[in-house]
Amino acid sequence: MKEKEQKIVEGMNNNDRILEILLNIVREKYKDDVSLVCCYGSYVNGTANENSDIDFYFIPKTDKAWELSKTFILNGIGYDFWGTNWERLERIADFDDTFVSLVDGAKIIYSNSKEDEARFINLKQRINETVNSPVNSDMLSKALSHINQAENYYFSLISNENHERKKLDAGGVLLEISDAVCLMNNSFLRYGIKKHLQELSELKHLPNQFIENYKGIINSKSNPDIEKVCFDFIKYAKELYEKLNIKIVSKKKPKDCLCGLYEEISSNWNKLYNACDDNNYELAFITGIFLQDTLDSVLHECGLEQLDFLSKYDCGNLDNYKEAAKNAENKFIFYLEEYEIPVSRYDTIEEFENAMLIK
Questions:
Q1: Is 288 buried (19+), middle (13-18) or exposed (0-12) by CB count in 10 A?
Q2: pTM of model > 0.90
Q3: Within its chain, how far is the Cα of 171 from the centroid?
Q4: What is residue 10's predicted lDDT score, i.e. its pLDDT?
Q5: Average pLDDT of span 284-308
Q6: How many folded domains does the chain comprise?
């Protein structure tokens, strides 16, 4: 080894040398098989300590590249040089995968071509555009999916008597709600679990009692305590979601939400009425669920008052239920008239035929 190269190696720490060894292998044996090699995490963002590993990955260009995957331990420190595909990185750029720092916080240390490099930079730009945009319905929808998953963990938590398992489910609640809160802020965790609560606490929109409940999940000692704090953690996240969602959906015009809906669901009202008249309580209930869910969703979307009738359901007395459904239908028709939304209605087949011919 030349003297100059020897001095460079001596000045390197183990992580630098590991990186150099792997990059040499890529250049010598896989230069046409790897699109990019990237580093992220503490090695890049300045939070590394003497026991830190390197967070690094590669993007294969051919199947041969997967041979590069390597896990090992050096001087007691574990390493994982792993591969991921462009498809996952695309999902990350769209915030469908919440490991956003994998792209945004990454540094390219090897590229096969300018095209590969440009493709990666484009993903970073997409993330940046999202972060700097107002919260929108798409991001809120992604947040809601995490809230729903948190509820799944909660149901598992309350149905399991094993305290250790409850802690695990509570951890699932904590992480899913944390992801949901990031998405409700068009943001993500740049430092992973290292500064988890610190980064979350700095977000603009936080659920009520967020920090207290976050710590409560970690510090809860009894089963009733952990169930209560997880319940509140989810409840307040849902309240934040509703608050942000109303601000967005209130901008939508009723005409955009309601046009054509009455024609679509009117047969279900008739089905409900007939079921009530026939005392078919099963069909009356199931049809009512569909109608109520549709009305709740659409009226919420355009900021109109909800039309509840399902709460009046009583399998022993369907008359009040039917009357409540009729009142809801009449109120819905009133909304259509108020916002001058026409209903495509024909009294005869000839009228329908003529209307279709005119089109």
A1: buried
A2: no
A3: 17
A4: 42
A5: 89
A6: 3
174-230 confidence digits (pLDDT tens)? 999 999 999 999 999 998 788 999 999 999 999 999 999 999 999 988 888 999 999
End-to-end CA distance of the chain: 83
Structural domain boundaries enclosing 225: 137-247
75 and 50 in a common domain: yes
**114-141 pLDDT, tens digit each:** 999 999 999 999 999 999 999 998 999 9
17-40, pLDDT tens digit by residue? Answer: 999 999 999 999 999 999 999 999
The CATH code of the domain that includes 68 is 3.30.460.10
Contacts of 320 (CB under 8 A, 6+ apart): 312, 314
Asked whether residue 345 falls in the same domain as residue 269, the answer is yes
**Which of 131, 152, 181 is the C-terminal boundary of a domain?**
131
- The residue out of 247, 271, 304 marking a domain boundary is 247
Residues 113 and 148 in one domain: no
Q: Which residues contact 47 (CB under 8 A, 6 or more apart)?
A: 41, 191, 194, 195
Q: Residues for the chain: how many in total?
A: 359
Cα–Cα–Cα angle for 358, 340, 357, rounded to 5 degrees:
5
Q: What is the CATH number of the domain that holds 207?
A: 1.20.120
